[in-house]
Amino acid sequence: MLFVELRFFAFFAVVFGIYWSLKSNSSRKLLLTLASYVFYAAWDWRFLGLIWLITIICYVVGLNVGEAPGRSRRTQNRWLAFGVVSSLLVLAVFKYFNFFTGSFADVAQLVGLPVNTVTLQLVLPVGISFYTFQSISYIVDIRRGDVGVRKSFQDVCFYIAFFPQLVAGPIVRAADFLPQIERKRVWNSVNVRYCLILFMIGMFKKAGISDNIAPYVDMVFSDHAAYTGPTIVGGVLLYGVQIYCDFSGYSDMAIACAGLLGFVFPQNFNSPYLASNIQVFWRRWHISLSSWLRDYLYIPLGGSRVGEVHHKVNLMTTMLLGGLWHGASYNFIIWGGLHGTAQIVENYWRRFVKFEVAGMKTAFILLSTLITYWWVNLAWIFFRAPDFEAAFGMTLAYFTWSSAGDQVLPIALWPLLFTLGALHYVSHKIGMLERLSTLSDLRFAAAAGALAALVITLFPLGYRPFVYFQF
């Protein structure tokens, strides 16, 4: 069930109406938990068992990780290790088993060892990477003392399955979300205008922009050799727009849906293509994932509090595993490695190069932003290309602006790129969302109506699944 489908609007309208009519907080939580299972079952009901398995592990481990009389720290740590390993094992079987066995077989063949590759014909459950990370967040937050142990199994079910973020995030921390469910949400605290505008902006990004440029992106990436060099560069830049509008659009709609039910989700995107370096980019792109990797992987590894070489290893390890999180492919690992390499280079650059001359700093920031944008889109090639051979060919064309092909995309796509870039900058600079949500009643109604009309006008005949559903 997609946020842009009519059946989702019917589903949400029913849930919304019943939810706010219920008086007790426990009844509301039960309703939203059951509704979340219905939402997930609309994709494939068989994988409800997987969510329940993760939830049971999460609940049982949570009860044993927390402090209790007579329970030693060693026992707590053993339970924590069991919970983390169990959750990751479920993820590994469904998402990485074939990749790891295939890689092992490739290495064995290189050294002359005959190996029969074992594969599993498994369907990747939608959203498994997201709710697995949320379950790990819960037990780790308990162990750290950031959140209390939940004795209520229903609360843990609700936290893992809450439908706005269930299949593609944002990754919600237990310490941020669980305190919100302790008391009944109050309608007067809901910023209805903000949520409505945010949802429509998200739909505009997804259906109005991402879905409409997706066919052109598919054309270039499916047969890049047939296109000219500049066209390949344009296709890569278009993919950068597509994936940003698709994923940030989903996040906007998820945050808005949760907000209309009285819950606050963390911001997941903050104009990432205006970042002046890769480190800033990751503070603005998929914020819930990058902060999760920082707090639950990078810092536990030692972060920057270790020696220089160890620090760089921690940084690269985090980015490589972040790439692998997105999919079982060497292309994703290379994508993570490109981002890790850029951050290491930037660390050395900032150490030895200073721009203190008046006027130089502004020029440097502008140049740095353009280089960052160029590098991010270079990395997107490996994220999107169907295989390494295609990625290498497109990378060569991206560097040289030359290719043996002669086909081109419509010339109108170039001014569209510049227009979208300008809109990205202006909306960030003026705080468009906040401005629209604080207009007078008449102006707000006019703005909301105009935005809705724009979305309907640009709505494609056939919608596409969200890109991050595959992760």
Write a structural description.
With 471 residues, the chain is mainly alpha-helical. Helices cover 70% and strands 0% of the residues. It contains 20 helices and no strands. It has helices at residues 6-21, 25-44, 48-65, 73-95, 97-110, 128-144, 153-161, 163-166, 174-177, 192-222, 229-260, 278-284, 287-298, 308-326, 330-352, 360-384, 388-400, 413-430, 432-437, 441-458. Helix 10 (192-222) runs parallel beside helix 20. The mean pLDDT is 87.
Give a brief description.
Helices cover 70% and strands 0% of the residues. The chain contains 20 helices and no strands.
What general form does the structure show?
globular
Strand proportion, as a percent range, falls in under 5%
N-end to C-end Cα span: 16 Å
Largest sheet: none
The helix content, as a percent range, equals 55-70%
Provide the succession of SSEs: HHHHHHHHHHHHHHHHHHHH
Radius of gyration: 23 Å
Give the low-confidence spans: none
- Estimate the mean pLDDT confidence: 87
Number of strands: 0
Number of helices: 20
Determine the structural class based on helices, strands and strand pairing: mainly alpha
